[in-house]
Write a structure and sequence with these properties.
- By secondary structure, the protein is α+β, with helices and mostly antiparallel strands.
- The protein has a single domain, classed as 2-Layer Sandwich (S16 Ribosomal Protein, Chain: A), CATH 3.30.1320.
- Helix content is 39%, strand content 23%.
- A five-stranded mixed beta sheet has the order 4-3-2-1-5.
- Strand 1 and strand 2 form a beta hairpin.
- GO terms for molecular function: structural constituent of ribosome.
Length: 141
């Protein structure tokens, strides 16, 4: 047998796991640590994020295992921030031991899947205080 054929036979387990049945093109290793994080897309001054499952120690722009939601932080014409999440797949990955990043925890807290993240309360309090300060300055003028 030639050397190339022997190398290809050794790579069969990797090739079998190369494409996970769900969406995404990243390799799936069943025993490695997974994380649910935001994957940035879009362009300058117009960010758009996908909520994805990735290997925990991979770079941000490596291929993902599965996309489980989207997040658009820019308000639309109705002043709404759009989020779509697949709760069944999130429940599956968390049950499999996936770590959830802090921004995704904040989104899941606001959506009601998790308790509201404590930093979300602090952020809302600061924004409310800043709005009240602007209103009092506008009244003084």
């Amino acid at each position: 047998m030639s050397r190339n054929v022997i190398e290809n036979v050794k790579m069969l387990p990797r090739i079998r796991n190369a494409l996970f049945p769900a969406s995404g093109t990243g390799q799936y290793y069943p025993r490695s640590a997974k994380t649910i994080r935001l994957f940035k897309q879009g362009c300058t001054n117009r960010p758009f994020y996908q909520v994805v499952v990735m290997e925990r120690r991979k770079a941000q722009y490596e291929p993902v295992i599965e996309q489980i939601g989207t997040y658009d932080p820019m308000p639309n014409s109705n002043n709404e921030i759009l989020v779509s999440l697949n709760y069944e797949r999130i429940r599956h990955w968390i049950g499999s031991g996936a770590h959830v990043s802090r921004p995704v925890l904040e989104i899941l807290g606001i959506s009601g899947f998790y308790p509201i993240y404590p930093k979300t309360y602090m952020k809302a309090w600061r924004m409310r205080a800043a709005d009240e300060k602007k209103e009092t300055e506008a009244v003084k003028e």
